[in-house]
Design brief:
With about 700 residues, this protein is an alpha+beta fold. The protein folds into 6 domains: about 5-85; about 100-205, OB fold (Dihydrolipoamide Acetyltransferase, E2P), CATH 2.40.50; about 210-365 and about 425-485, no CATH class; about 365-425, no CATH class; about 495-540; about 545-704, Ribonuclease Z/Hydroxyacylglutathione hydrolase-like (Metallo-beta-lactamase, Chain A, 4-Layer Sandwich), CATH 3.60.15.10. Helix content is about 50%, strand content about 15%. The strands form 5 sheets. Strands 1, 2, 3, 4, 5, 6, 7 and 8 form an 8-stranded mixed β-sheet that branches. Helix 8 packs across helix 16.
């Protein structure tokens, strides 16, 4: 039987509507949009739509019935752009000034290495006899003190401090933390010492979230009461409560490398397990009828929705769990309304509603991965399962689990590579273990909580939980240790992401419609993709570059050429600075195998570097490193260099430097503290000298 694509599309009204909405949101994210002009266009097309509908139905001229559909799509594009602008957070009216104000704690206090962290909202303060109320939120860091442990979600505090802007280091392709927080409505940060704040009232926040956080704290106590501790407790808290803050770095890395990290983020999988469990337990309700009406079906749907949202509340109502709960709510309602309703339409409807509530969700990796994984499982999993005819029940179950894992990876791997630049090669093996284990863990944890007031019974569930968790942790650690378990540092650009998804779309069309042309287009796209990668590699080799990164307290220099070099202090490898500040650029440029040259190396000569003492020639550019070790000698002519690098908080005066050296620009690198940077900038400006401050502007780069 031939697949009827037009009839299929008719079943997907929300799937057709969501694409123009997303297009409008993405356009507003990447390009400047005039909100007033966009609003006028929206009104114009809306009036045009109303007249179009009236004309078609009055004249009964249905040849033009495509026109209202086109106008709806245009309206949704403008609507998406307007929605994003309407949700844009306001920046603070005052930064860098000490203010006395009030604010409400809007998240539970979390423990950091050197401080406690939370979010403040409903902020108001007095400035020049005017009370200012801010609508955006700020991050608050409390100094480590016993008094902070008394703070709870919803507490109102009075504080006195300076609210500062959030800044990025400015290294190329590094995670944009400032923009990430901005899209969550957070536009500032403040540090509070114990004497700079005090609690003035309690219970000033959302009662639903307040209840959710209280329940979560209670559940953590129950787990500890029944002897679940260590790595088992931290993984259980992540699985059931959405709290990953206590997970050990070693365990976290094992789950990432084995392709099982999604298990530790409470999301669609966990809600799906709860749905399947209670859908099975409540199956008997489907048989209940009253006057030929399926009352039992609606009763079951209502109970399932209550159970799913109860689980969401127990898990702390994190964005990912709310998203999954909304998604399954639409699926449940869809099934109750019509047993043959299209699941793609239910999924699209949930995404549509979520984006209208908060269009910035489109930028969240969790949102993208959740919907990509669900669509992949729905579309590809049945087709993968059908590839093998297996009669044995156990083998069929294992093959079905493998198919789920493969299907999810097919649609999520472009997103995973784009954001994380890593691919776990044994993902199918880890998922065969962790998905059944996670299912049992969630079921047993529910039973543990229900029976926590009974004798003996909860001890049995706690015992089972401990050993399942231990077994799961050992398994993922074993898979991580396997040879070639992960492919790391994969270069994956925006164009790679687009081409990868286009290939997936055309392959899917081929599977549905059996049209060879779509497969040919996929192959052409694959060739273009390979060509892009080759072109980038050749370009990097033909145009070697130097990068001086903004790594706090360090000088850090990458030389990207046929052979790559890294110049810095030896102790930089004892920090995470390379992982977060330098690796993203190397991944983007698809470079590896860096030869390390300590910055204090007295003499070295390579294919592109000549270094003698503090003097360096790199390619066609010359550099002089100015630190405390440098000595000046009287000569008839000045030493000529392209760049001077001021490093290590040197006290050398710029006036003295220009007496001995002729240069084009001074680079003040990030090994200097803020006081020295400020002092050097003032000197350069006074003497009208061209300079570049890495701490202020981010990475310095130039071709060599």
């Amino acid at each position: 039987m031939q697949f009827d694509f037009i009839q299929f599309l008719k079943q997907l009204p929300f799937s057709r509507l969501i694409f123009p909405l997303i297009a409008g949101i993405l356009f507003a994210l990447n390009f400047p949009v005039n909100i007033h002009l966009s609003g006028l266009f929206f009104i114009f097309f809306f009036i045009l739509f109303l007249f179009g509908i009236k004309f078609i139905y009055k004249s009964k001229n249905f040849r033009h019935r495509w026109l209202p559909g086109l106008l709806i799509n245009i309206l949704l594009v403008f609507g998406g752009a307007l929605l994003l602008k309407a949700h844009k957070p306001d920046k603070f009216q005052t930064y860098g000034t000490v203010v006395t104000g009030e604010a409400v704690i809007s998240e539970p206090i979390s423990k950091k290495e050197n401080s406690y962290k939370s979010i403040l909202q409903n902020i108001s303060y007095k400035l020049n006899d005017t009370v200012i109320s801010e609508h955006s939120r700020i991050i608050v860091y409390f100094s480590k003190d016993e008094a902070v442990k008394k703070l709870k979600y919803g507490d109102k505090i009075i504080f006195k401090s300076r609210i500062n802007t959030i800044t990025n280091p400015g290294n190329p392709h590094e995670f944009d933390y400032k923009n990430y927080l901005f899209r969550k409505g957070i536009t500032g940060q403040v540090f509070l010492k114990n004497e700079n704040w005090k609690i003035i009232s309690h219970h000033n926040a959302n009662p639903i979230f307040d209840f959710a956080y209280r329940i979560r704290n209670h559940l953590e106590t129950v787990y500890e009461k029944y002897g679940i501790t260590g790595n088992e407790l931290s993984v259980l808290q992540a699985l059931t409560l959405g709290d990953r803050s206590e997970i050990d770095d070693e365990i976290r890395q094992a789950y990432v490398a084995s392709g099982a990290m999604h298990i530790l983020a409470v999301s669609g999988l966990h809600v799906g397990i709860i749905f399947m469990l209670f859908n099975f337990l409540l199956k008997f309700l489907d048989k209940i009828k009253y006057k030929e009406k399926h009352i039992g079906t609606w009763l079951k749907a209502a109970l399932l929705i209550i159970i799913i949202w109860s689980f969401a509340i127990l898990s702390g109502l994190s964005p990912s769990i709310r998203r999954a709960a909304v998604m399954f709510t639409f699926v449940i309602i869809g099934k109750a309304l019509n047993r043959h309703i299209n699941i793609y339409n239910s999924i699209s409807a949930s995404a549509f509603i979520l984006l209208i509530i908060n269009p910035y969700q489109i930028t969240e990796v969790g949102f993208q991965l959740s919907y990509a994984a669900v669509l992949g499982i729905i579309f590809f999993q049945p087709k993968i399962v059908a590839l093998l005819k297996i009669k044995n029940r156990i083998l069929y179950y294992l093959w079905s689990l493998t198919a789920v894992s493969i299907a999810a990876q097919i649609t999520t791997f472009p997103i995973t590579l784009y954001y994380f630049h890593i691919f776990p090669t044994f993902f199918f093996l880890s998922n065969i273990i962790v998905i059944p284990a996670a299912t049992l863990i969630i079921i047993f944890s529910v039973f543990l909580l229900i029976s926590s007031t009974l004798p003996i019974v909860p001890d049995v569930f706690a015992f089972l939980l401990k050993y399942i968790l231990k077994g799961m942790n050992i398994s993922v650690s074993f898979i991580e240790q396997l040879p070639y378990s992960t492919v790391k540092n994969i270069s994956f650009h925006t164009e790679d992401l687009i081409i990868a998804f286009l290939i997936l779309i055309f392959v899917s069309i081929f599977i549905l419609l059996k049209k060879v042309k779509s497969l040919q287009i996929s192959l052409i796209l694959l060739i273009i993709w390979i060509g892009f990668g080759s072109f980038r590699k050749i370009t990097n080799e033909k145009h070697p570059k130097i990068f001086i990164y903004n790594i706090n307290k360090f000088s850090a220099v990458d030389i990207i050429a046929k052979q790559n070099y890294f110049i810095s202090e030896k102790n930089i490898f004892n920090t995470k600075n390379i992982t977060y500040g330098i690796h993203p650029n190397r991944q983007y440029l698809n470079t590896s195998d860096f030869q390390f040259i300590p910055i204090d190396t007295s003499e070295i000569k390579t294919d592109i570097i000549i270094k003698k003492g503090n003097f360096m020639i790199i390619g066609n550019k010359s550099f002089l490193i100015m630190n405390e070790k440098i000595k000046f000698f009287n000569t008839k002519t000045k030493l000529k260099v392209d760049y001077i690098i001021l490093t290590g908080n040197t006290n050398l005066k710029i006036k003295k430097i220009i007496q001995y050296i002729d240069f084009k620009k001074i680079i003040i690198d990030s090994s200097n503290n803020f006081y020295q940077v400020k002092k050097r900038k003032e000197e350069c400006e006074k003497l009208h000298i061209d300079y570049f401050s890495v701490k202020d502007k981010g990475v310095f780069s130039t071709e060599i």
